[in-house]
Design a protein that fits this description.
The protein is α/β, with parallel strands linked by helices and about 300 residues long. It folds into two domains: about 160 residues, Rossmann fold, CATH 3.40.50; about 120 residues, N-(1-d-carboxylethyl)-l-norvaline Dehydrogenase, domain 2 (Orthogonal Bundle), CATH 1.10.1040.10. About 50% of the residues lie in helices and about 15% in strands. The strands form two sheets. Strands 3-2-1-4-5-6 form a six-stranded parallel sheet, sandwiched between helices. It has a three-stranded mixed sheet with strand order 7-8-9. β5, α6 and β6 form a beta-alpha-beta unit. It binds nicotinamide-adenine-dinucleotide.
Length: about 300
């Protein structure tokens, strides 16, 4: 079996890495903070002292890190994955980063006789825990076929979208839909509350019709229950909107709705909500409307 390295054991990375152990993959892990690493070791993984050291004992190295600079440092930087990986090794970056970085990693990997895939995910913490993530993959078909058995341990809907960077473009598209829908659900609830109509009843009614969505269901429930513990941190979604807008700018494309929602996320972060779940965006709309949604029970 391929020896797998896993770097980045946060909300997503830890449960994803844990799924690889029962499948029998020899697993070496590295994380900046120690806690999650100890859990993986207790479950049967080995730890290494640096990304380079992880790569030196792995055939396939997976990264699940917060942002583009983190992935650039860990994969391409000094003491990074590509310094340790043997010729023929495969890098799978599952973080959400700039498509241009995914292409740069792909090119640098090729120069070393290695291959790389960008394989960002959707489905959140619950999808990571249940191994039901949707995984959108960019890179060569042979690299995809090689990675597939490993990806199948973490996800269900695994789609090869196109060449290097295509997975990250797909994830950017995904993040537009999620962000704009969170804003739409927030506006719908605030409108209802301002009109003295119970937003919880509005959600019940809308869930049976054309406005149904998983975001109305899950994040709508979070908004009404005030469950803003992440989940998906607002700072990370704001990071993804920067990826969306930077990529659009590179393409000479205007995305006015995405830009507006990114500004609303800035407002949430400026009000101290950066570490809250992105469903807390509703609180910005509440402030604009000078009201607060009340939990369904009250
Ligand atoms: P997180 O902040 O919970 O975890 C990131 C982990 O990386 C942390 O454990 C941190 O210690 C570690 N780390 C950071 N820099 C490091 C470095 N240089 N070397 C080693 N470890 C390092 O983030 P997350 O929620 O798990 O998200 C990870 C990625 O997945 C992000 O790109 C995010 O946008 C994406 N994502 C998250 C979700 C979600 O619902 N949380 C859903 C889909 C995609």
């Amino acid at each position: 079996m391929e020896r797998v390295g896993f770097i980045g054991l946060g909300i997503m990375g830890k449960p994803m890495a844990l799924h690889l152990l029962p499948a029998g993959y020899p697993l070496t892990v590295f994380n900046r903070s120690q806690g999650a690493q100890n859990e993986l070791i207790a479950a049967g993984a080995t730890s290494a002292a640096s990304p380079k050291d992880v790569a030196a004992v792995s055939d396939v190295v997976i990264t699940m890190l917060p942002d583009s600079p983190d992935v650039e440092q860990v994969v391409l930087g000094k003491g990074g994955v590509l310094e340790g990986l043997h010729s023929g090794g495969l890098v799978i970056d599952m973080s959400t980063v700039l498509p241009s970085l995914a292409r740069a990693i792909h090119d640098r990997a090729q120069q070393k006789g290695c291959t790389a895939l960008d394989a960002p995910v959707s489905g959140g913490q619950v999808g990571a825990q249940n191994a039901t993530l949707s995984i959108m993959v960019g890179g060569s078909v042979p690299a995809f076929e090689r990675a597939k058995p490993i990806l199948e341990k973490m996800g269900k809907n695994i789609v090869h979208v196109g060449e290097a960077g295509a997975g990250q473009v797909t994830k950017a598209a995904n993040q537009i839909v999620v962000a704009v829908t969170i804003a739409a659900v927030s506006e719908a609830f605030v409108l209802a509350a301002k009109a003295h109509v119970n937003p919880s009843k509005v959600r019940d009614a809308l869930l049976g019709g054309f406005a149904h969505s998983r975001i109305l269901d899950l994040h709508g429930s979070r908004m009404l229950q005030r469950r803003f513990q992440p989940g998906f941190k607002t700072t990370l979604h704001r990071k993804d909107m920067a990826i969306v807008l930077n990529t659009a700018r590179e393409l000479g494309l205007a995305l006015p709705v995405s830009a507006a929602v990114a500004e609303l996320m800035n407002a949430l972060i400026a009000n101290g909500g950066g570490e809250l779940d992105h469903s807390a965006l509703v609180t910005v709309f509440e402030k604009l409307g000078n009201l607060e949604l009340t939990p369904p029970s009250s």
